[in-house]
Amino acid sequence: MTERAARPTRLYPWQDRRGEFSALKTIVFVGVFLPGLWLLARLALGTLGPRPMIEINHQAGLWAIRFLLATLAVTPLRYVWRWPELVFVRRTLGLAVFFYAVIHLVAYAGDLAWDIPKVASEIIARIYLAIGFIALIMLVPLAITSTNGMMKRMGGIQWRALHVLIYPIMALAAVHFFLQSKLGVTEPIVVAASAIWLGLWRLIAARLGENRIASLAGATTLAVAVVIGTAFGEALYYHWKVGVAIGRVLPSNFMLKAGTRPAWIMLGIAVLVIAVAACRAYLAAKAPKRPRASGRRVGNEA
Fold this sequence. Notes:
mainly alpha, disordered C terminus, flavoprotein, FMN
């Protein structure tokens, strides 16, 4: 019996392509539900504040954009960490983005007492709401075509061309997040920097190849550039927003009393990514060589 014939016709989210239990897929599958379950628990306990729907709206939006970044990070990390199996959690993460974005919108409508005409007028009148709504609409075809069956019907080339929409969606989501942030902008800056990092990775990989940019030297160089760019980006933002001189903001990255800076967070992420990559490269070098098995390589999964 061939490998294809032996493959089960139906797979559950916690199974690999052979129908066996996958710890990685299980952890991710359970993980995407936890923020929603936590919100439900807080709603039941009455700890969401005086406007529970708006708190659900905010939290669902935050998790939608976090899972969107995680979805985009799958391809770079599978190369940088030499972990091809990561591709099999991308579908779960992508669907989580869509459903949390829907909850984000539904909770906003709930906060407006389910007055749909008012919801529509607010979306039209407020630019940041219009941008977020466009991003949600663009997510719909990606969610609909996330199955293996739709991939086969569309064909690989058309399917991949459609799912490139994830990048403009990320750009719109980052702008939406930035514009609606009224107090601290640390997380919006981190989101924007992460989106730029992932976008640059894709552009450089398309030009130079995944293996060169995924090498320790290539990944480290790009990470350092992003961390430095984040520090300057924050300084430029405050210069544009409130007129503070760039030379006054940049030194705050070297002052503990200035609080956690976006560049510090990006540095922490970069150190984690490079450290894991270095460990996996070391373990791969020490592992005994095994003959390469014939057959197809691990494929893509949205």
